[in-house]
Write a structure and sequence with these properties.
The complex is a heterodimer.
Chain A (H helix, E strand, L loop, with lengths): L6 H28 L6 H4 L21 H22 L6 H24 L6
Chain B lengths: L4 H9 L7 H11 L11 H9 L22 E5 L7 H10 L5 E5 H6 L21 E3 L6 H17 L23 E2 L4 E2 L15
Parallel strand pairs in B: 1-2, 2-3
Antiparallel strand pairs in B: 4-5
Classes of the chains: A mainly alpha, B alpha/beta.
Bound molecules: iron/sulfur cluster (SF4).
Chain lengths: 123, 204
């Protein structure tokens, strides 16, 4: 077993583990022996800046919000691609302009789709 | 048995240092007080100034203001405690770890100050929680807060770890929970905590 080339690695791993766990264990032991523990209901309650916490932290968001994420993506991607396009605009050929136009129109189509679906009106 | 003071100084001159567990323990506690980051009104501005470079509370080992009561052991009530805020203050005090201390900073925290006649101002936070040091002033200067802090350090230093007057955290019997007042119809209920503040009897 000692001849195994990974043996030294295993030793190192155990040492590293001990290095991490020993201080934790000592701290825990120290706290367990010496810390003046006075728990009560108020102290153990969830910290909310002094207010009582209400409800559950595990709330669910409506999946319908994915639409907003998509619209955000449309504008986000558009901005990222339009900026270099605008910078290099004067030096571009016809083909580049047309392909850019197609790209922008595709995104506009997405926007139009969202509009038709009525997402842009805030209910 | 404790070594008496003169012998201790004499030994110190010879390069022998003696101490007691109590001294070491209190030295550790007083030199690393962690105040809670918590300001209530105009006095808080002075408290903030105290922690900044000009006044530098760091010299006393208390510059790290913690934003959570779980990590703090000193509550500086810096400002007016309204009746709306009082339950929160008491709850935060309850949520701090033992041992914990309170400095009531300014006229408002002590007695209601200029707003004492106000319908919604608590007339002193010591009605609900035990206050270690009061500082008068409106607002107290940063120097005054430092004076209060040093007074608190002295107080911690003088605490004995055993005996009847040992601090609350070393006393298994002592209560650690202070009832949180609730807003009632006309006032907070209860109007004070008789355990920490015996209501004065009004003689007419
Ligand atoms: S004591 Fe004076 S400065 Fe301090 S909070 Fe009250 S009114 Fe403001």
């Amino acid at each position: 077993m000692v001849s195994n080339p990974y043996f030294s690695l295993a030793i190192l791993f155990v040492a590293a583990l001990g290095f991490g766990l020993a201080p934790l264990g000592l701290a825990w032991l120290w706290a367990w022996i010496y810390s003046p523990s006075k728990p009560n209901a108020v102290k153990n309650s969830i910290y909310e800046c002094g207010l009582e916490s209400k409800g559950d932290a595990w709330v669910q968001f409506r999946s319908a919000y994915y639409l907003y994420a998509i619209i955000f993506l449309i504008f986000d991607v558009e901005a990222v691609f339009l900026l270099p396009f605008a910078v290099a605009f004067t030096g571009l050929g016809m083909a580049a302009c047309v392909s850019m136009l197609v790209f922008v129109l595709m995104l506009v189509e997405g926007l139009a789709w969202a509009w038709v679906k009525g997402i842009l009106t805030w209910a | 048995m404790a070594v008496d003071n003169e012998l201790k100084i004499e030994l110190g001159k010879q390069g022998v240092f003696v101490t007691t567990i109590e001294e070491l323990y209190n030295w550790g506690r007083r030199s690393s007080v962690w105040p809670m980051q918590f300001g209530l009104a105009c006095c808080a501005i002075e408290m903030i100034a105290t922690t900044m470079a000009r006044y530098d509370l760091a010299r006393f080992g208390a510059e790290v203001f913690r934003p959570s009561p779980r990590q703090a052991d000193l509550m500086i009530i810096s400002g007016t405690v309204t009746k709306k805020m009082a339950p929160q203050v008491v709850r935060l005090y309850n949520q701090m770890a033992e041992p914990r201390y309170v400095i009531a900073m300014g006229a408002c925290a002590i007695s209601g100050g200029p707003f004492k006649q106000g319908y919604n101002v608590l007339k002193g936070i010591d009605r609900y929680i035990p206050v270690d040091v009061h500082i008068p002033g409106c607002p107290p200067r940063p120097e005054a807060l430092m004076q209060a802090f040093m007074t608190l350090q002295k107080k911690i230093d003088e605490q004995s770890l055993t005996g009847a007057d040992r601090p609350r955290h070393l006393d298994a019997e002592a209560q650690g929970e202070f009832p949180v007042p609730e807003p009632g119809e006309h006032d907070l209920e209860p109007a004070s905590n008789p355990g920490v503040w015996p209501a004065p009897v009004v003689i007419r």
